[in-house]
Amino acid sequence: MQTRLSAQGLADKYPGREFRNSIMELLNLRVLLDGCIIADKYRVPPDLHQPLQLSEDGERAFDALGRRQVIPYPETRMMCLLTLWNVDILVDPVATNTDALVKAIGKEIVEQNIRFPYIHGRLLYDKAADELEIGNLRSGLNPTETQTFLQGTPQGVFQAGNFVTGPYGLLRSQEQRIIDPLQYVPYHCSDVTCENVHRYSLQTSIEAPINELRPKFSKHLERESKEPSDWSGFLKDFGPDGPSIYRSLYDDLSADSLIYALGDCLAISELRTLFTWIVTNTDELSATAAEIPGVSAANAGNMNEAQLLQLVSVAQNSTIVRALDALVLQGVITVPYNEIRSPVMNRKGTGPYGLVSQINRYGARLDSPYFNIGPLRLRRMIAEMYPLDNEHERTELDWQMREEAAETTEARIEKFVQRRSPRDVVSSLLLVRHSNLIVATENLMIQDDLLRDDEDRVNSVLWKLGFSISDGLDQYSDFWRYLDATKKACRSAGVNPQMLDIEQIRREAGPFFPELERVLKDCLVFVTWALLTDHHRSEKRFVYRPNDDAPSALRRLHDMQARDEQGRRLSFSTESTLYALVRGFGALADHFDTLRAQGEQFLRDPLEVPKWAGVQKVQIFPLMHTIPFLDLLPESQQGIIDGLRRASQRMVSAEVSEVRNTLAHPRTADVLKLGLVLEAVEEVVRFFRTAGYMRQHFRPVKTETDEAGNSLTTLSDAFGQTVSVHEPSYFDWLDLPAAVAGVHFMPAAYFYEPSRMLRFVTETKSTYSDRWSNYPRRQKERGATAGSGHPEAPTVPSPRRTSSI
Fold it and tell me: Which sign does the torsion angle of CA 443, 444, 447, 452 carry?
């Protein structure tokens, strides 16, 4: 029996940096081989084991098992690599020909003798929905089924250290990352009440000799020592000789998860654009391009998604972020104003902070859904702007924060950050001197030359730090500006307007009325969709997609066969007139009134009610009708009907559409009527805003939590209107949008006392929304499902380590 060594004992025996770096390379290769999938017939080829130089302990194991044919010769040598160490190292990392080993592994990947599932994007997810018959409660595919399922799919892109797998084999990256291989197929079961993303495991062969005979190898090592030396402690040394990959693990700006965002959030055309930018603007792929025929910007159009993702992964994280930011800011990759792209199939964060990469109109960032890292980054940025060990900088910061009453500079910083919004803090410090801007942009990898103005600079810093940037956002700002300009023109004209006044009014009212039509149509369509759509059966619950949902809402309005005061049929379409729109709200109110008397016709099929609704009393399912209006409280229903009718009657009585038509050749009397129209319109639109019929964006401004864990989050829109969200609630399993920036609240539509109201989010059409438009895709009903029947956050299992080659 040998005596195990401590981490210090190993450090004394192997003090050199070369040994540590070399063993880390072998360890990373072992991680990839451990995570691959092989078939029953797999045998270790000569090229794979010949580069290995066994150590003294490795040779002893080989003599006992390989030479005596207990385990075949090639497999015995490979098992030394796959085990790597016991009391001492089994493979000499310095003497082993690592380059030849990498080339051999790459050849096995290219020839698909060893497989990695391509988990990025939705390729396997859709393939599972199309091909797999999941429903017999098995946990996964057997090895034969796994090989059949993976046939025709590209090699997966994973990374251990500097080694990246993919269709091109095994490439060396400029960046060290930890993206361990995973072996599963994601899918949604047929139960529409279940929101779990289930994981159906893929299995490697346990009959291939390299796996079947592993227990014999392990038993031999146990005779040497029951417990291996502390290799983990040895390799996690943070000293100057320690591997940088462990130091970067704790970096809150370490962007390993960026690869998941590229795979899930970018369309293939955008990946091609990203690859082309990197090839054109850097030399980080030049070595790879020299080794692999066809790797060039000119050939990007012929590469598939997996090939592009593997090649992009060769570049440094900072280069990928710089490329993404540049392409987004320059509009080459179009990200809509309010869109935040987050990974869908690969939502699990990386590192101790659970960092997830996201993309918005300012580029890429790293955020944590579990750890409020933004305020900590903000404090650190202040410390970097004003190094407190420099007396001049300390004095300057004290002056900047002179209004904060505190004895020390450190205490002033805390008060300054705690009492102000992140936007106020960043705005006050970022732009006060150029050196502060340089610190922020360098540390957060912001390309200042691509930003248009100071507002963009502040927004970009907030985004990169991890904060919301929806402050002050109002998508109806043009309407209010045109309304104010037209009102001002009317007031200036007085009671006896002259010809010049009338011309000025016509110029101001010209853009106002088209904008009014847009706002009224948006409100009418949104309310129709929100209160008449069965959100429980929607692909994306409580998500409003204007390009898809607005036309269907207009068709529903048209099918109501509403009529005006003279009995003429009102027409609703994408070209709806102002005349029809002002009367449409009254028609919708009448429809709601009719529905109340027909409630039993719209009761939900009991089979559609979630299983959890009838077996517990902690969570409530209130959507017992297929029309959400019928599930609102009676006083809410009546309030909506009365409010919509009053709004319609107010605009009809003010002759809004008629006055608009007279403005082509206005007279004095028409100008006076315009003033009344403006008054009526302002009253109605303000009511719509208060009721939540306008898609106002709310953002969190304050969260309070008591000792029992009850939280109260206050959100505000651009006009200071606030709503409150209490958590936990009886409705956490409804899939209502989270109380985060960008959510729309409808205070008029409340379904539970005292103020549980409907809330929604808007999804703007983009390549990202198109990519995930029919998500989730349900398995066809083929028997029992694996679902638990209640909605919860998807979970991703730890990487399997029970199989290897």
Answer: negative
Q: What end-to-end distance do the CA atoms of the chain give, in Å?
A: 28
- The residue-averaged pLDDT of 401-406 equals 87
Q: Which positions ≥6 away from 374 have C-beta within 8 Å? A: 367, 422, 465, 466, 467
Token duo for residue 758: 């409907």
**Cα→Cα distances 24→51, 84, 314, Å:** 16, 11, 18
pLDDT band at 555 (very low <50, low <70, confident <90, very high): very high
- Take residue 494 and report the two structure tokens written for it: 């007085």
For residue 3, the one-letter residue type is T
What distance lies between CA 398 and its chain's CA centroid? 39
More confident residue, 573 or 306: 306
CA distances, 780 to each of 130, 131, 190, 192, 785 (Å): 9, 10, 6, 11, 10
Distance between CA atoms of residues 353 and 185, nearest Å? 26
Q: Which range (27-31, 546-550, 573-577, 800-804) has the least confidence?
A: 800-804
Written as six digits, the tokens of 76 are 């015995």
Strand partners, 752: 756
Output phi, psi for 200, to 5 deg: -100, 115
Is 679 in contact with 671 (CB distance < 8 Å)?
no
Where does residue 576 rank: exposed (0-12), middle (13-18), buried (19+ CB within 10 A)? buried
* Beta pairing, strands 756-762 & 543-544: parallel
- Could you tell me the pTM of the whole model? 0.86
Q: How much is the mean pLDDT over the chain? A: 89
- The Cα 547–Cα 89 span in angstroms is 61
With residues binned 3-state (H G I as helix, E B as strand, rest as coil), the percentages for the chain, rounded to 5, are 50, 10, 40
3-state secondary structure of 615: coil
| Residue 135, pLDDT above cutoff 70 | no
User: Are the CB atoms for 703 and 741 separated by under 8 Å?
Assistant: no
pLDDT at residue 800 above 70?
no
Torsion angle, CA of 112/114/116/117, rounded to 10 degrees?
60
- Token pair recorded at residue 587: 């028609």
CA 119/CA 805 separation, integer angstroms: 20
Q: Is 678 exposed, middle or buried (0-12, 13-18, 19+ CB in 10 A)?
A: buried
pLDDT in tens, 118-129: 999 999 999 998
Residues 6+ apart with CB under 8 A from 424: none
574: amino acid identity, one letter? T
| Cα distance between residue 221 and residue 424, in whole Å | 62
Distance CA 698, CA 693 (A): 13
SS3 labels along 434-446: HHHHHHHHHHCCC
C-alpha–C-alpha distance, residues 784 and 625, integer Å: 26
